[in-house]
Amino acid sequence: MNLTKQFFKYVSQNIFGLLGTSCYILADTYFISQAAGTDGVTLLNLCLPIYNFIFAIGAMVGIGAATRYAILRAQGDERCQRYFSNAIFCACALSVPFLLAGIFAPGSLLRLMGGDAEIVALGIPYARIFLMFTPFFMCNYIVSAFVRNDGDPSLAMVATLSSSLFNVVFDYIFMFPMGLGLAGAALATAVSPIISISICSRHFFKKENGVEFVRRMPSVKLLGQSCQLGISGFVGEMSSGVTTTVFNLLLLGLAGNVAVAAYGVVANFALVATAIFNGVAQGAQPLVSECYGKGDRSGTRKLLLLGSGTALVLAAVLYSVVFGATDALVGIFNSENSVRMAQFAHMGMRLYFIGYFFAGFNIVAAGYLSATDRPAEASITSICRGMAAIVVCSLVLSRLFGMNGVWAAFPVSELLTALLTLFLLLRRTKTE
User: Fold this and answer.
1) Is 335 helix (H, G, I), strand (E, B) or coil?
2) What letter would DSSP give residue 203?
3) What are the TM regions of this chain, as residue ranges (predicted)?
4) Contact call for residues 418 and 358 (beta carbons, < 8 A)
């Protein structure tokens, strides 16, 4: 199979898998909006940054370790086998603070995220359950990344889609027929990564499996080497959390809980959009790392061009859908038919999603930089788009233009990051 066909195979399967993950968050939002109205959507939006942080750690460890594995394996280096078991051990250790927060202080965490007394009381059972399943969320990222990097993207896709389908079905069953409410939604979400891990584990019993579980003490050095290449994955996941946290605080000050609920609608559809572009970046990563490990520079450049072009086409399709069906999309999560929320979310969707014309390229480029062992440049790109630029732009533009400035902060920050990323890519190309 030639490189172009491999690219579209890996990318398409990874997009479908990550879309499944984001769709179960949409299902959560829909069912919670039906069960608890605007307060339920507000609660979920306050919890999203916590989810993002958990997923970000899993992405940093999992994608970074799997990338190291792919590069070293292509070079014939036996050290590649230590990265899988080390990633699993370290993820379990890193999940302990979340477990403790879930057991002892879920309410304090929700207050820290900006929840008032009513929202905190509503959300304690929800937060406690999903925090206690943190090890499974993190390990799921690691297992699926290694399965994908070991040449089995189809199984990783099936596992992700199956877990997402389980989540959607049992969201409904737990919340309504069984009457568990928001706790039922959290339980369905918490069990879904266990389903995914179980299905992915089939790969380790196949003849084609190249991943070994090495029984050694966890190594901080190996973790650091993994995190170097996983930083773009970390910031990519965290960017949604940082954006959500900053936007929540700004919108609370501008128009209260209704504005946060409106952003909850925008943020949930943004998760789907981000999943699409992460699918391109993560799908291409095993191929880029393999080409890089073999010294095939023309192959890596071809994959970068394919990824960037694919991201641009997908951004155009995505914005066409959002612009043409804005009110219908907003209406899905507006169970109380709030006119103010609909107005806020309508403008938010149309301004915010312009940013994906630039964000798609930034996500793909950051993944490429990590896959070719350029952690410093990948970190610069990722931190700029995920933290620095979005925070500065949102603070400045909200002061100048109010709520419209908040919505416009995302496209402006992604445009600035795209210019920086293009400079970093062209600078290295000239020296090669």
Assistant:
1) coil
2) G
3) 7-27, 50-71, 83-105, 125-143, 155-174, 180-205, 226-254, 260-282, 303-333, 353-371, 383-401, 407-426
4) yes
